[in-house]
Amino acid sequence: MRRRRGVLLTAALLAQLAAGPSHATAAAPTGQCGVVRSGDTPLGGAEVTLYQAGDGAGAAPRVLARTRSARDGRFVLDYRRPEDPRAVLYVLAGLPGPGGARGAGGPAVLAAVLSGAGAPPELVVNERTTVAVAYALARFTGPDGVAGPDPGLRNAAAVAHNLADTGTGGIAAPLAAPPNGALTSTLAEFNTLADLLAACVDGAGGGVGDPCDRLLDLARRPGRERPRDTLRAAVDIAHDPGHNAAELFALAATAPRYRPALPAAPEAWTVALRYDGNGHELDGPGNIAFDADGNAWVSNNYRYGADPTVPVCGGDTVLKFTPDGRDAPGAPYRGGGLYGAGFGVTVDARGSAWVANFGFQGHGCPIDPAPLERSLSQFAPDGTPLAPPEGWRADGIVQPQGLAADRSGTVWAAGCGADSVTRVPDGDATRAREVPTPALHKPFGAAVDPAGRLWVSGNGSDSVQVLGPDDTLERAVTGGGLRRPLGIATDSRGNAWVANSGILPVPCGDTTAGDLADAAVAGDTGPRPGASVTLIRSDGTPAPEPFTGGGLFLPWGVAVDGEDTVWIANFGGRRVARLCGIDLTACPPGFTTGQPLSPPDTGYPSDGLERNTGLRIDPSGNVWLANNWRTLPLQTNPGGHELVVLVGAAAPVPAPGLGGAAARP
């Protein structure tokens, strides 16, 4: 049956190749040299096919060229480069099938992305490049190949080059060097995943019980079809990284080809990549918002300082990172009243970035923050400040925290120090108006649902308040486990998900950053009562009991992905939690809403994480987290210095986020 499938697939590919380009105007002929290897061993007889990824969800990939590798593993692909510079090109190398049968019918399939970082003089296709494709393009790789919309797919291809170097087959520079490299276990994990695929390449003979069958069985997600080859197996592992983690590690140990490798099995096979920009700009990143191109705008608590014992003042920049983690042109940006931004950053319907100036600063800073903690900053897409030097000021903007924007252009700010919210209609700050929120004390998190309603969490009142698009007070919610709530997010059906820290007091009004630090450190070592997630239905009714498990520790940031799955950051425990959402078809059979998808006791842990606040999901399905504070937060300068990205872990979310987790892109 497996060989017959391979013959059918080969016939289909030949038909596509004969048909030629279907829509794009072709450029001059191009020759691409390459080599197929497993470790240092060349792989001859591989059927090498170059594809142009499908342009849109469900679109068919297009064959551009096909050849076969020589005995030394080398090949040449002659093709016409698509005229569209955004086209994503990738290569699949199918090794001979069972019994040495020629063709792409075997279970060992290696892959590499050819676009996104410039084609190398010689393309290397090996297990490392395959893992890079499987994770970075996890949410765009299906049974029929790679396809997806722009910019998500294009950005994902660029991220693949942060993991593997397609010119050498080695580790790419961003993964090999600080803040990654030897500083975290991700590089060793990445190599171990490559070893896992090498076990199949070594034993690709077919037959029950061989390494390939073992890999495909272990990688199969509950309730899903068995993957047919090594690439799809790696994609399935990326989708469900906690499934059979120990058994997969044992299989990887049978082919120790890439070093360094993990010494023990991980709790989950998440690939956590850290970004730090130019290395001296992030200090206490608070939260993240994505623009329409998938660029990440990041609020920053403090001015950068490497030494945590030297006092720092409030951050006076907003960061902007490209989808693959580099500084955007001209970034970081200054002006517009920026000072000590906290959890508040959003991008509105016109592409302007907004930042809430909370007034964070380290102990020992000589600046009086009181005049500086009462404004919003606004920036054009190119970083030009649109707010005056003192920022946009209005009643209710006192120690502002959460920000949210809706489809009409309205921006909302939670006034943590004013016990109210401020509505900025059409993004026109000259018309800003304070809206009292009597059910809230210390408003903190803010989210807009698909109907344009605003949901705000009250950290000091254990409550949530709902406002209509016209700022009408619709509902106050208590109960359901709400306890020191922080982040809040809405799903595609208008339900709200609230992260209950249980014990963390936000530092506004009569509470200080020192109080927050004391509670966080105590929570690391003692009981964490109330750490949970509350589901509030769209009608304002909370679920009877909050959800726990899945690695919930000190919940802070929360986001809902394109399949309505719920992701939670923790301000302790160095882990991410993931819960089954309202769409049960995205969960394993028999799962219920709120049931943990991440390992129940540990979540998705990573030694690249510290104390995380903001968590957001980009159009490529990457989960971005803010390393806001160090694990031991000295109050002179407690800030962390990285963003952490779980590559390809979630279902993509279109950007900017203007009301609930929109339909899958």
Automatic annotation (TrEMBL):
Residues 1-24 form the signal peptide. One of its GO terms (molecular function) is zinc ion binding. InterPro entries: 6-blade_b-propeller_TolB-like, TRIM-NHL_E3_ligases. Keywords: Signal. This is SMP-30/Gluconolactonase/LRE-like region domain-containing protein. It comes from Kitasatospora xanthocidica. The lineage of its organism: Bacteria, Bacillati, Actinomycetota, Actinomycetes, Kitasatosporales.
